[in-house]
Design a protein that fits this description.
Layout (H helix, E strand, L loop, with lengths): L2 E5 L8 E4 L2 E4 L8 E4 L9 E5 L3 E2 L5 E3 L23 H4 L5 H7 L5 E3 L2 H7 L7 E3 L1 H7 L4 E6 L10 H13 L4 E6 L3 H13 L2 E7 H6 L1 H9 L3 E5 L5 H9 L7 H14 L3 E3 L6 H7 L1 H13 L5 E5 L4 H15 L6 E7 L4 H4 L1 E6 L8 E6 L21 H8 L4 E5 L1 H15 L8 H17 L4 E6 L7 H8 L10 H8 L8
Parallel strand pairs: 10-20, 11-12, 11-14, 12-13, 15-16, 15-20, 16-19
Antiparallel strand pairs: 1-5, 2-3, 2-6, 4-5, 7-8, 9-10, 17-18
Amino acid sequence: MAKQSFYYADPLPLSRTQVKGEQLFGCSALKTKTKHLRLLSNGCRARASWNADVKPLEIPRQWYNLIADLSVKPPPPLHPKTFEPIKPEDLSPLFPDALIKQEASNDRFIDIPYEVLDIYGLWRPTPLIRAKRLEKLLDTPARIYYKYEGVSPAGSHKPNTAVPQVYYNAQQGVKKIVTETGAGQWGSSLAFACSLFGLGCEVWQVRASFDQKPYRRLMMETWGAKVHPSPSSITEAGRNILQMDPSSPGSLGIAISEAVEVAAMNADTKYCLGSVLNHVLLHQTVIGEECLKQMEAFGETPDIIIGCAGGGSNLAGLSFPFIREKLSGKINPVIRAVEPAACPSLTKGVYTYDYGDTAGMTPLMKMHTLGHDFIPDPIHAGGLRYHGMAPLLSHVYELGHMEAISIPQTECFQGAIQFARSEGLIPAPEPTHAIAATIREALRCRETGEAKVILMAMCGHGHFDLTAYEKYLQGNMVDLSFEEENIKESLAKIPQVIY
């Protein structure tokens, strides 16, 4: 049989490849038809020769913008004071020009900068893995695949957008980036990206998470970031919250208010957001673009695509390229968003204009929201704590292109334990929701005999989230009751906007 050779070459290394019927990425060259594989000191960049049936998988060169293919465009964000559609200059105190342009773009594809592709090559393409051991454990005819983003330096999908966001800020001469973080996945990813481009990084971490996850804070500090518990006494927004509730556990909405306040007051400082906004979802589509090709290499077409949904970037990143193919009539998968029962913006919230932060400093976005001052219970262990869903994802949901369910945290962690003990990977709390929903679907297939192909978003590992697992394993984790009265009180404070 004829042979072909290819090189993993800087700055765009083909650091992963896909073998039909098996999974191969970077250094894990098990069960492949490899002639030889020479590993270099960084572990994943090497020269290799393969049999002709092995197709190299390249890092996508463009991000995909779903807005271009939607017949009904999403509603615009509104200015927080005038309630009129936001103008580019209104966003300039917070974001660099390139990201403002991407936020409002209707272009179908946007080129990924050379410098960003070079850094993506540290971990991309990421593996698509068939969960054969989980299938066996569940005794299901379903075929389960998961796209694993935990191989990034920060351990999640978040660097997919952290790197380009910091790159564009660096290009514009910004000296420091500020942000918020909940579980710490986003804060650590931004700290990582800032360390590569030499920018300062300051992070407001939700107080409940700051106390529960000291190693996430240390991870950020190792990459050079300065980390504050939120609410803090540093900002006016934080001081106002502490005056009302000195023991406030914090929320992402509060932390966003603090970071935005600091960015707006300092000319050399910009703000970065890890989810929700259009440009963030855009950057994450590298996940789905890779996965389309990987599923094709496996000879499979997903019947159902499942992803956890908090702010929405992980689910959007995987699903939007598949929705493009669905809109063109090529495939017809069910897209299922899974959110925590403790913070169910899609399934319990309302679709309306609301602030993206607690203090009302950000533009109003039309999204599914529980109210901008909604604060999840601090005993909620499963991540995904944001009060609203990404406006574009909310719009797609309203158009009927996806469905949503919510799952309580004990079922999520039960599924995570099954996954860890069969597949070996310990999931972050966020993807436990997708795992639990996948197990539900796989068990339905066992009852019906359907051999569905299930594609799941596995957005990160849980190595810094083991206190949640300890709580579950010791029997101390409880399901939170969703208080309708609390939501009514929060929703009552949403501004009444007619647009």
